[in-house]
Write a structure and sequence with these properties.
With about 240 residues, the chain is α/β, with parallel strands linked by helices. The chain has one domain. Helices cover about 25% and strands about 20% of the residues. A hairpin with a 4-residue loop joins strand 4 and strand 5. The longest helix has 20 residues. The radius of gyration is 19 Å and the shape is globular.
């Protein structure tokens, strides 16, 4: 099973356990009946979680990535802060990815949409400017963290704060010890363990096969389209199928 990590404070579902290689995860079931508990979900978050667990192999197939299941790690809803004013100066927050998927071939920075998303215009799906900027900010962090290999966040901030502010204008690098600095250091340390390319991905999940985009803007985003089975109502899905 792939490793699933989540530290988004506002997520409803948190995955903190890590599966050891070669071992099956414990089923959520009754000790007597041995039946797996059914988990139903609705909406974009549930569809994203389904795509990156049950549907992960298909997600990576569309990314031309054949990495074995045990060698993947998924960071679900990694948060780098919500939009909020900073009373002490420039803000550092730049938003929340829907996921980051890492394999032995590449790292995938994922934005997700579903079949009710307003960004879908006929068969063209558009990534919002704030989301594009989020990808640019994290790419900057990865490139410069890899290049400098700092011994601490304080050293990194001291060396790159001026360049970062010149590049992104209204943002600054967070101060050491803050939640954002800790989260960034955790993710950056993982992403630079291997010298792998970063790919921007727009994941579109639908429970209505007739609703599927054919292209994404900007074109640098890879479009991955997945279809989940409607388990009832107007789009509930079974997360185990």
């Amino acid at each position: 099973m792939p490793k699933i990590r989540s530290f988004a404070a506002e997520s409803t579902i948190h995955f903190t356990g890590m599966m050891r290689k070669g071992k099956e995860p414990p089923n959520i079931c009754s000790a007597k009946s041995k039946k797996i508990m059914k988990i139903y979900g609705y909406g974009e978050d549930a569809l994203t979680l389904w795509s990156l667990t049950t549907g992960l192999s298909e997600f990576l197939r569309q990314c031309d990535d054949s990495t074995p299941t045990d060698d993947k790690t998924v960071y679900f809803r990694p948060s780098f802060g919500r939009r909020a004013p900073n009373p002490h100066g420039k803000p550092s927050v730049f938003g929340e990815f829907d996921a980051i998927v890492t394999t032995h071939k590449a790292h995938y920075l994922v934005e997700a949409k579903w079949n009710t998303s307003s960004e879908l215009d006929e068969d063209i799906l558009t990534v919002e400017s704030r989301q594009c900027r989020r990808h640019g900010v994290l790419r900057w962090y990865v490139e410069n963290w890899k290049k400098s290999q700092p011994i601490s966040w304080s050293e990194f901030r001291s060396s790159f704060r001026e360049l970062f502010e010149a590049t992104f204008g209204t943002l600054t690098i967070p101060t050491p010890g803050t939640k954002l600095a800790k989260n960034l250091e955790f993710i950056l340390s993982a992403l630079v363990e291997q010298d792998l390319p970063l790919f921007d991905v727009l994941l579109f999940i639908t429970v209505k096969p007739s609703v599927q985009p054919k292209a994404v803007r900007p074109e640098r985003f890879r479009l991955v389209v997945m279809t989940a089975e409607n388990a009832g109502g107007d789009g509930f899905i079974d997360l185990n199928k």
